[in-house]
Amino acid sequence: MLALIRHTGWRTVSNVFELGGIAVFGGRMVYQTFSPPWRLRRLVDEIYTTGVLSLAIVLLSGAVVGSVLGLQGYITLVRFGAEQSLGSVVGLSLVREFGPVLTALLVAGRAGSAVAAEIGAMVATEQLDGLRMMSVDPVDFVAQPKALALLISMPLLSALFIVFGLAGGYVVGVGLLGIDGGTYITNLETSITFRDEVVGSVLKSVVFGALVALISTWRGFTSAPNSAGVSRATTGAVVQASVATLVFDYIITALWGG
Amino acid sequence: MSRSPIRDLLVGVFVLSGFAALAYLSIQLGGSTYSGPGGLLLYASFDEVGGLAARSPVVIGGVKVGQVKAIELSPDGDFRARVLMDVDENLKLPDDTAASILTQGVLGSQYVGLEPGGSETMLGDRAEITYTQSAIVIERLIGRVIQSLGNSSDGDDKESRSEPGDDG
Lengths: 258, 168
What we know:
Chain A has nine helices and no strands. By secondary structure, chain A is mostly helical. Chain A is elongated and about 65 Å long.
């Protein structure tokens, strides 16, 4: 009994410690972003590995999700004889929810895991200690470009996901199910407003980008210096980033959509 | 790390296409600017605008010629809704043009339909359209139908009351 209480207390306190550690770590990366050296070359390389290499999976998923939304939306709407408003359904669900959230989940799985594994392996092989010996700050040199690249890539990938999703919905709705193309586009344009939908969508993807970036670099940095530690860090990064994305999705929707 | 120019190019293309997608979403779909024809501002007052909203289309004979810019209560203090429309300035609309609020399909979105009249004088900028027809609110329509059904059954009130007596 006493052991249970002790264990609970220890877990709580260590969680608070970890949260504080993440906050300090994030603050250091924000500080490094605005202070020289800028390390643009490193940033371009990281945008290539996190953004460009994630393009294929994000665009493919976007097109497929858009097609499924078109099909599902049609099946539901046709019961009410409202299948002409398919454009609104596909557009609103993609811009408000599916674009930012699914992109964040995909990027967490595709790039966040790679970031955590790479930094974790550098911890295990004492490369970060080597950097410290050369008085190079590993947060500045290793983590910050990766985090910034994730933060920059996320809204761009999300916007591309949405555009491909809209095209997928168009192909299914107009091409296969025979809805008028002009009606689809008009519905899309009248239902999506700049302030409520587009700004909210970009805000979401920026917040998700920051979450995925922070969690995956932090998990990599704090991984135990052995192969089991690297594997735990990678799994933890993907799981925690995905859960954080979904929780913050609710919070932003509640605050923004009210 | 060895540098390859292809990689820089790909990053550039990725960032550019991402921004292009964002621009498409905010300008084309978000409609922060209206790209269609416009320039002629017209007012019309209605008793009831129903589900009409800013950016609802304004059409003549099914062709979109503009959109609703704003809806507010009339400044005259008569509690009517005043709709400001932005339509194609190249249109020569007679001053007896009628504006009515119509619905696409049964449950579709609402729009303003303009029906040009035969007058010789034309509507100028910021002119008021006087002939208007308000939106049909389906609840009121149903209410009126129920009311008229009730009224018609009032006449044979005695018969309907005698029915339960017959059963007993």
